[in-house]
Each structure stands twice: as C-alpha cells, then as structure tokens.
Design a protein that fits this description.
The model has no long low-confidence stretch (mean pLDDT 87). The chain is elongated, with a radius of gyration of 14 Å. It has helices at 13-22, 53-63, and strands at residues 2-9, 28-33, 40-48. With 75 residues, it is an alpha+beta fold. Strand 2 and strand 3 (40-48) form a beta hairpin.
C-alpha cells in the first residue's frame, strides 16, 4: 500500500477527483491555503496499491494545469 499526497489548485480539484473516482481510485480531500501566494489549494490523499500509483499520478497530471502568476514585490 502506498500513500500519494497531491496538492492541486482549487480550480483543478473537482476535475482531478472526478477522474480518479471514474477510474476506481478513492480520494480524500482536505482544503488548504498556500503559504507563499495565499491562494486556495486542494490537498488530495490517496491510499493505493502499488500497481495503481502511476495511473493515479498520470490522471493528476492530465487534469491539473500549470499556472503563472505575477507577484509584486517591494524591495
């Protein structure tokens, strides 16, 4: 048994969870907030048999987007 911990954007959380569930992978959702940008995140916990780990990671990658955000800093 393996534990996969994934932190995804709040926008991507429902898409990722739905796809995992469609593929027979159970998931536990925890709400969280990022420390750097102070944006909402979804922390997903997956308890999986070793054979399903790669499948779960591929689903997370496929259903999550990379984002860029400009942060103003005063120096």
């Amino acid at each position: 048994m393996k534990l996969v911990l994934a932190i995804v954007s709040d926008e991507d959380g429902p898409k990722v969870m739905n796809e995992l569930n469609r593929n027979g992978i159970g998931v536990t959702k925890l709400g969280s907030t990022g420390g750097f940008l102070r944006v909402g995140n979804t922390t997903l916990l997956l308890g999986l048999e070793e054979e399903k780990v790669e499948q779960a990671i591929e689903i997370i990658k496929k259903k999550s987007k990379s984002r860029k955000q400009i942060v103003n800093s005063s120096v």
